[in-house]
Amino acid sequence: MTRPDDVLCTLKVSLGERSYPIHIGPGLLGDARWLVPHLAGRQVMVVTNETVAPLYLERLKAALPDDLTVRELVLPDGEATKTLESVERIWDALLEAGFNRRCTLVGLGGGVIGDMVGFAAACYQRGVAFVQVPTTLLSQVDSSVGGKTGVNHPRGKNMIGAFWQPRAVLIDTDTLSTLPSRELSAGLAEVIKYGLIRDEGFLAWLEARMADLRGLEPAALARAIERSCSLKAEIVAEDETEQGVRALLNLGHTFGHAIETHQGYGRWLHGEAVGTGMLMAAELSRRLGWLDEADVARTRATLEAAALPLAAPADMTGEDFLAIMRLDKKNLDDRLRLILLEGLGKACIHDETPPEILSRLLEDFPRR
Amino acid sequence: MTRPDDVLCTLKVSLGERSYPIHIGPGLLGDARWLVPHLAGRQVMVVTNETVAPLYLERLKAALPDDLTVRELVLPDGEATKTLESVERIWDALLEAGFNRRCTLVGLGGGVIGDMVGFAAACYQRGVAFVQVPTTLLSQVDSSVGGKTGVNHPRGKNMIGAFWQPRAVLIDTDTLSTLPSRELSAGLAEVIKYGLIRDEGFLAWLEARMADLRGLEPAALARAIERSCSLKAEIVAEDETEQGVRALLNLGHTFGHAIETHQGYGRWLHGEAVGTGMLMAAELSRRLGWLDEADVARTRATLEAAALPLAAPADMTGEDFLAIMRLDKKNLDDRLRLILLEGLGKACIHDETPPEILSRLLEDFPRR
Questions:
Q1: Which CATH class is domain A4-178?
Q2: Mean pLDDT value across chain B
Q3: B123 vs A96, A124, A162: nearest CB
Q4: What architecture (CATH level 2) is domain A186-364?
Q5: pLDDT tens-digit profile of A25-61?
């Protein structure tokens, strides 16, 4: 087993008084040094789900000193549990345990757990400490930065929530060993996204190290996660309120969201749909004259090396895509707003794609 | 009818980017000038209760330009409705109306409405604009400043909530004409509190103008509300995180809370219990040698002029008081923490009241 200190790295997210560290490396979960300094007081509530609990809950708890009051809550797994009712279960458990304003909530699990536990922390007694321990690659590179917490409402995803920063994020790369390989690939799609939108050098590094990443080589994982979080932190710092550059984080998401919606949530993983969506964005950028064939081929090869799908669903027509894309909330008035590529490592917001070029792409892009 | 501009005053609460104005005066509710500049976009949801709606909802809506999308939601009245379920009704209504992140929530009513609507705004799509239109004296001088929002949980008051600042607070002193006189007196208790803890000159002004206040003289009301909000704003600015000086706002509350708890919530109004509690704090301060007879007599006379009760409940023993006071969350370890007076206009935090002096006060303080 690799010892944490060998490949550990720490990234600081700078937000004034609300700045926090992201610690990344193998073995963090079982080592009190990484969690204990971030606890607000002596009361700790660990919230996790039924999939993650049997794998990592005991390891995390064993690392906590005996003189703390530690409670746990295990929720069902899955996006369907991301509801206000689940957050109410967390609040009920906190009150039943008599936890005060100096307690700390620890979210152990993927993006759903992180979003719910962060929201529970944001509103318990008007805000308590929160430590995030993301156990999926997607949540490690996405929800570690940005402070978005919340739950779904029957009428829309993430409709109820708050911005609430964690005290710390602990990313134990060992947890990826139990992640299903489709989910690992889906996480890699988001990693590749950061290279495509902002850092061509990182993209080149990813092409070179993709086999190591899929083989869960700890140093490669730590580097990929660190660079992804760091790029996201740069973008969020430039645009905390989501007016401009932060939209670039949606590369591939307009096409991808159309796939997810058409297919029904769950059949395609979010990262899989985003991966295909990024390839569609690259191909559209080529047709607009911004990328050349070699750029698109490089994008395709990188996604392929990550074992991501390279073709849209067989049963989805160009008109199916357009109908869903027209409802996207990024659009202004009647214009489709797309995130495209001016070059590899250089994304842009584009409102003026000629409709006939877009329609043709949606028709002739490969189907599975 | 007095025209707004005659006695209007505006207080700015300084919180950097989150600074906001409190406009105070008669007739504000029916005058678009005060509300419209604070709307974030063109979607407005007015939330009020069944008591206030028939009195003021139409007047407020009539002042809004026709080109806005205005919806309303009328909730039941009373502390029992201050629940997460009520806040969910607000979120459901917002989503049903298709309101986006640029909508504005207007809370028209007392403290319960303000706390719930503020919390709904804090968490709708991770935070939308909120304008507070408090219609009781207590909410005008208390919840206008401090940014506390939230709801009760079966296990405790205000357990779920957020800090969320309004875009503006509009205090129409005309709304006090429909306030039951017991509630007016209860609000005056909080006004007197600000004088007692921090401003002897304001206390003297209150003694001189109490009859005008009870007679709802607009200029006197505006001055009393402005000075109360301003004193609270000073205290909150010195101690945003409730570590120190903000505790002074609890003058009379430890005794008062014991009365409310013992009698069952609702039999004594909060302000009535706080009024009697402040007199108990003044009398205890005298026995500790900090106030003289004349100071206590002045305090009693001011409360009496505001038509507040001056004696504790007949069926409540000294031991009843102590049993409840020992549970107060301000206490550290086993010591009772009390807010007392070093002088009129000068409150202090006191951890070392000799138990026998406190017990004697609780036994021999007048009963009704």
A1: alpha beta
A2: 94
A3: A162
A4: Up-down Bundle (1.20)
A5: 999 999 999 999 999 999 999 999 999 999 999 999 9
